[in-house]
Amino acid sequence: MNISTSDDAARWRGRGVIARYRAYLPVTDATPVISLGEGDTPLIFSPRLSAKIGRGCEVFVKYEGLNPTGSFKDRGMTVAVSKAVERGAQTLICASTGNTSASAAAYAARAGISCAVILPAGKIASGKMVQAFAYGAQVVAIDGNFDQALEIVRQLGARQDFAIVNSINPDRIAGQKTAAFEIMEELTDAPDFHLLPVGNAGNISAYWAGYEEFVRLGKGRRRPKMIGFQANGAAPIYRNEVVVRPETVATAIRIGNPASWAQAKRAIADSKGMIDIVSDEEILRAQRWLARAEGIFVEPASAAPIAGLLRASEQRATAHFSGASIPEGSRIVCTVTGHGLKDPEVIMASLALPKPVAPNESEVLRAIAATQS
Ligand SMILES: *Cc1c(COP(=O)(O)O)cnc(C)c1O
User: Fold this and answer.
1) pTM
2) Per-residue pLDDT reduced to its tens digit, 257-268
3) Atom of ligand 1 nearest to the CA of 250
4) N or C: which end of the chain has fewer CB within 10 A?
């Protein structure tokens, strides 16, 4: 089966990652496929980011915010929920900074089973919170952070009644590696650098597993350097120590003790990549820049790799990551993990809503002119 041409790829459009990549996933004919048509997200060439890096480099943005629930979590969730249903699970459970719960709730609804989500109180972006309720999850808020929520989920998962769908479930990682497959098929090989935000560190591990698998199978020859970005106030891997009270505006990576820490370190070491940090100011500036310069609106966590790339481009003469220069003609892929509409507050906070004007042409023209100043 050759699925490398765009005609063939079109055959899988809308059918989800299990239909498209069944041979590489832990599913059998006995697995019921619970899918919402996830994956097959656009790899958008970014002319302005490319120009900033210069010297013939090409930057692409893998826009994972276009998955069914607005984040990459859906790729792993389709596999995790399909396998859970195959095993007879009646209730899913997860801890979440927001996107895992949105995704779990949607796939549980699709499967016709229930879903309990454990969330850190007051730390979930409103778009994500709305999703958990809309899909009918049982929402529990704890007076604690994500790491504590995950600890409780681990304990509950030891009981028979709950199937854990956090990324400590290997089915999640298996599903998420399909994003690397899509990139290799679209670019005909791996990029030179792959940049992404790192929270619980499942995704960086999943991408690396995907790249490695396709090279092993002869479906590509190269593997990228994996470059992960954590937020300054939530950077346990970068600092090599658990952060007891992680803080960042990028709530999706507000994690102090990543579950896939060891796998992420291996991915970074084996790929000769690196882990770096960006400040909340850099994240918000990059989020704004990406929306205005490229027309791609992402949530704050997703802007972390963009922030890293913008900083690299400002370290002229030649762009580099912490001393390692970016060779001429490099291909760089940035995964932007979640949609900007997930977290409207962060934009609203810096907005002055317009005062209504009289409903006539001249007043509206005057108001347009006033907003341009
Ligand atoms: C989950 C998530 C992350 C972090 O991914 P990990 O696999 O936990 O490292 C980053 N961005 C968004 C939008 C997310 O939902």
Assistant:
1) 0.95
2) 999 999 999 999
3) 11
4) C
